[in-house]
Amino acid sequence: MVAMTETRVQKGLVRMIQFDPHFGEDVLVVDAEGQKVLIPRQEVDADREWKSLVGFVGREIAFVVKEEADGVLIGSRKDAQMLKRDEIVSRLKDGEVFSARVINILRYGAYVEIDGVTGLLKNVDFAEDHTTVGDVLQLGDSVNVRLKKVSSNGRLIFEAVEKYKSPTIMDFSMFEKDQIVLGTIRSIKPWGLYVCIAPNVDALCQMPSTGEFEEGQKVTIRIKKVIPEEKRVRGKIVRVLN
User: Would the keyword Phosphoprotein be found if you checked this record's keyword annotation (predicted)?
Assistant: First the structure.
């Protein structure tokens, strides 16, 4: 039975999404032990705003009941997240490893969730090489993570416990001037783009004068200079592939 007289975290299965004229927005329709609970869009997440709620259908989520209106229970996943957040962050800060569920894949990484508490796992913190989270994992997959840091705005930044390394033929000894090489943008700095072209090899490329760039984009570069004694490569962006 869903509790209505105390603020405690409960769980239920999201059965559907529907527009609710009372709230003037989409709501999650949750089946909690046979009782219907509505969670308005504004109560879905404490950490981010979802453009689409479709990914919640079929998921078991945590929530708290906020009120009962005309026999309908109104819940909040956001409040449940806030109740759980302090406990989970404390355990993360103590170095505990959690199995996190991938809930949204981005070009530069993925949002993952630990018992309703979300955080960011960037590609650079997931793999040793140019592999992105989306190359390996799908929505709903799990990955073992630990806390890397808490950002200035309170966002949790995770790193994979065991960083992924894809099998590849590429290594530093293969690179020569004027080669065209596939790579992935690892980081963007005021002075240029760092493009991973092999495990532990990032080519520094001058920032192109046109176009918008994001971490995780796959590009081809022309190698302009190889510095063997420093194991450094300089290049130029030729084409953006995605």
Answer: no
